[in-house]
Amino acid sequence: MIECKNLCKIYKNGDIETQAVCGITFKIEKGEFVAIIGPSGSGKSTLMHILGALDTPTSGQYFLDGKEVSKLSDDELSDLRREKIGFVFQSFNLLPRTTVLRNVMLPLLYSDLTQKQREEKAKQALLYAGMDKDKFNNLSNQLSGGQMQRVAVARALVNDPAIILADEPTGNLDTKTSQVVMETFKELNSKGHTIILITHEKEIAEFTDRIISIRDGLIEKDEKQTHK
Question: What is the mean pLDDT of the chain?
Fold first, then answer.
């Protein structure tokens, strides 16, 4: 599903060049649950932006479903993000004075679906993400952190993306709530979703089936996990 070949990203500021990642090569198969882990400044956020088609590499190749993403136009990248990738962020990125249901419907705004069809898809996504029906009409700022993250997961799922890309999804949550959210991701993965988790927390990465460790812009380790 995903293949990265010798990816490099160099940022330029005047005469100064900063190499964020270089020589990154790996594959992720359909249905995998993978964590990309590394300390601050390791390059994991840069890699996340490339995988999410939010940025393009300076050199190297990135393929998604056989298509070379690094050669797509801005419009094509936008279409790819909308159709293939569901994003979950640390800060939830929900509209605060908008209902749970309408937050999840947002990615469907420019679809050909009717209002009723959009509502139905949003409801199904919320149930799939483990959200209680009685919360659908609550404003998002009336929810707990864990509930907000489940809404964010539902919003990521509503377009039936090939990949869920989660950037530090437990970063604003306490330990118990983090475990609940990670169990939600495990459940989604067991139903066939490909999930890529970006984190700096080893205990969160251990929920996944494979850990790619990055340091100083390079892959340090790439290990399969065995769960008891």
Answer: 90
Identify which of 185, 178, 228 has the alpha carbon closest to the alpha carbon of residue 200. Answer: 178
**Three-state DSSP class for 65?**
coil
* Tokens 């990642």 sit on residue: 21
So what's the architecture of 2-224 in CATH?
A: 3-Layer(aba) Sandwich (3.40)
Query: Residue 148 is encoded by which pair of tokens?
Result: 């907000």
d(C-alpha 3, C-alpha 148), whole Å: 32
Q: What are the Cα distances from residue 18, in Å, to 12, 14, 15, 43? A: 6, 11, 10, 11
Mean pLDDT along residues 154-172 = 88
pTM to 2 decimals?
0.88
What confidence tier does 228 reach under pLDDT thresholds 50, 70, 90?
A: low
Amino acid letter, 217: G
Domain assignments of the chain as residue spans, ordered by start:
2-224
Under a CB-based contact definition with an 8 Å cutoff, are residues 88 and 24 in contact?
no
Percent of the chain at pLDDT exceeding 90? 50
99 contacts 139 by C-beta, under 8 angstroms: yes
What is the per-residue pLDDT for 91? 82
Long-range contacts formed by 139-145: CB under 8 A, 24+ apart: 139/96, 139/97, 139/98, 139/99, 139/100, 140/92, 140/94, 140/95, 140/96, 140/98, 140/99, 140/100, 140/103, 141/96, 141/97, 143/100, 144/177, 145/172, 145/173, 145/174, 145/177
In whole angstroms, give the CA distance from residue 22 to residue 37: 16
- pLDDT tens for 44-78 read 989 999 999 988 899 999 999 888 998 888 888 88
